[in-house]
Each structure stands twice: as structure tokens, then as C-alpha cells.
Amino acid sequence: MNFLSKRRRHAAARPLLLLLALLVVGVGYSVVSPQQTSADTDMSQQVEEGKALFNVSCSSCHGLNGEGTTQGPSLIGVGTASVNFQVATGRMPAARPEAQIPARTPLYSAEQVNALAAYISTWGAGVESPKESQYSPEGLSAEEIARGGALFRANCSACHGIVGGGGALPGGKYAPSLLETANIHVWEAMRTGPQQMPVFSKDVISDDDAREIIGYLNEAHSQPTFGGLGMGENGPVSEGFWVFIFGIGGLALIATWIAKKGARAR
Ligand code: HEC
Ligand code: HEC
């Protein structure tokens, strides 16, 4: 204290005090001020980014305000699940008119897809993209997966085939194979019904049912392994090769050994 009071009148005291006061106010403000301000600006930045993308690559077909044109439907109230499904599977932006808009390598990063979804949902909310707990088949019992299989056969296999291998539909259309489809997109397809596919609402396929169906598809599409050596999983040729080398080769070795140690050698 003595030290401070002695230097109270020092020439540098006032500016130093001012600096200290500013520091206290600055730190105090950053602690007290609501964290939301930064979240809000992130949010509006995301919407702005989505708007810029939309105006360039979507508005020609869907209209500058998503109202729809002769080239594409209105997007008002479609929901983030539909935007994510359409853009993250590369269906959108559609390239040219054809019987069915196919899935392609997606044009945008996950961040850009989220930005588009955020912007489009400013016109009206719809079915939201699911949380992982809604589509992850993690922790399902064998019984529940079997139930998923029954649900799939009852609701989906008419178009997609018994194990989801895909199938043709009239008019040059087709139900695609589900072998490679990401779990989140299976969920979103059910809830949003893209193109010729019907919408399966919560009343028809509950959230639990949806997870079970996803669990079944995962199970049906995982490579069956029957134990033992995989031998490169290349089928009969590599298996035959192994039998030849180790089987015949081994027998030849044993035969030579017997011949050497055998009675006649003595
Ligand atoms: C060449 C025209 C064209 C362009 C460009 C285009 N779309 Fe589409 N979009 C369509 C058509 C046509 C459909 C309807 C497909 C159907 O259901 O048969 C559609 C459907 C959609 C749907 C589904 C709507 C629903 O009811 O669920 C979404 C979401 C969508 N588009 C988003 C986008 C976004 C985002 C972009 C830009 C990245 C984009 N589209 C660019 C033509 C286009
Ligand atoms: C009336 C026929 C029909 C039925 C029934 C049907 N789908 Fe589809 N499904 C389609 C068609 C057609 C498409 C292609 C839509 C597109 O490309 O936009 C499709 C697309 C999908 C996709 C997107 C695949 C991908 O890789 O992009 C998934 C996932 C899917 N269906 C799952 C299901 C599930 C699960 C069910 C049952 C709950 C079901 N579908 C029932 C016709 C059907």
C-alpha cells in the first residue's frame, strides 16, 4: 500500500490507472455479456452463406424465394431433412430434366449443406434432420433387427427388393439399391418421400420402427464372415489356390518325408 500511495502522483499513474480500468471493464464485459451474441452472428452468417449458394445454384429452378417455378417445386416448409437428403446425396442441384433425378457425388460440403438448409428453413419449418440417436442402430437387439426385417418386407420391399437391392418401376423410374445408403439418408428418405417414394410419417413408421429398419439394412448389407481365414475374400479362385499350395504342397512334403524315413530307405 505504501508503495502505491507513494507513487500516486507519479506522471505515469493516471494513464496506468486508465489502462487498468479499461482492462477490468473489458474482461468484465466478456464474462457478463451473453454468449448468445456470438451464436447469433454464427447463425446469421450461416443463413447468409446459404442464401448466396441458393441464389447461384438453386434459384433458377426453385425461384429466388423458394416459391417454385415450372422447373422445380416450391421449397417453402420442406424442412432440413429434405434439403439434407437431396443435397447430401447429390440429387440437388439437379443437372437436367430426366425421368428421375439420380444420386450423384455430392457437390457441397456438409457445412454448405447445413447453410442451405438453414436458409431454406427461414421460409418455413418442416421435418428436421434427425439426431444420431434417432437413426443409429447402435444397441438394437437381434429381435428388434428381425422386427426391422419384417417391417422392411411389409413396407419397402415391393419397390426396393427383399434385401434392398433395388428394383425397376414403370416409366424409366427405379427404386435405388440401399446397399450403400448412409443411415441418416434412410431415415430422411422415409420421412420426406423423395420423388416416387411415398412419405412414411411417424404414424405409419414410428421412430423405433425406423431405427429397426435401419438396423435390418445394416445387418443385411454387412459382409457375412464365416470365421477362419478370409483368404482375401476373393472367392473360389483364391481358395483353390490356397488348397493347391498348402494341400497338395503339404501332401508332397509328407510323401517325401515318408519316403526318406520309410522302411525302404533303410
Ligand atoms: C435444374 C433444376 C433444379 C435445380 C438447379 C435445383 N433443383 Fe431442387 N428440385 C428440382 C426438381 C424438378 C425437384 C422435384 C423432384 C421430384 O420430386 O420429382 C426438386 C426437388 C428439391 C427438393 C425436395 C423438395 C421436397 O418436396 O421435399 C429440395 C429440398 C431441393 N430440390 C433443393 C434444392 C437445392 C438446395 C438446390 C440448389 C443446391 C436445388 N434444389 C437445385 C429441380 C432443381
Ligand atoms: C412405391 C415404391 C417405394 C416404396 C414402397 C419405398 N420406396 Fe424408397 N424409394 C423409391 C424411389 C422411387 C426412390 C428414388 C427417389 C429419388 O431418387 O429421389 C427411393 C429412394 C429411397 C432411398 C434413397 C436411397 C439412396 O441411396 O439415395 C432410401 C434410403 C429409401 N428409398 C428407403 C425406403 C424405405 C426404408 C422404405 C420403406 C419404409 C421405402 N424406401 C419404400 C420407391 C419406394
- Average residue-wise pLDDT: 85
Taken as a percent bin, the fraction of beta residues is under 5%
CATH superfamily of the domain at 132-221: Cytochrome c-like domain
Gap between N and C termini: 109 Å
Order of helices and strands: HHHHHHHHHEEHHH
E-strand count: 2
How many helices? The count is: 12
Kindly identify the CATH topology of the domain at 132-221: Cytochrome Bc1 Complex, Chain D, domain 2
Shape: flat
Bound molecules: heme C
Which CATH class of the domain at 132-221 is shown? Answer: Mainly Alpha
Report strand order across the widest sheet.
1-2
Label the structural class.
Answer: mainly alpha
| The CATH architecture of the domain at 132-221 | Orthogonal Bundle
Helix percent band: 40-55%
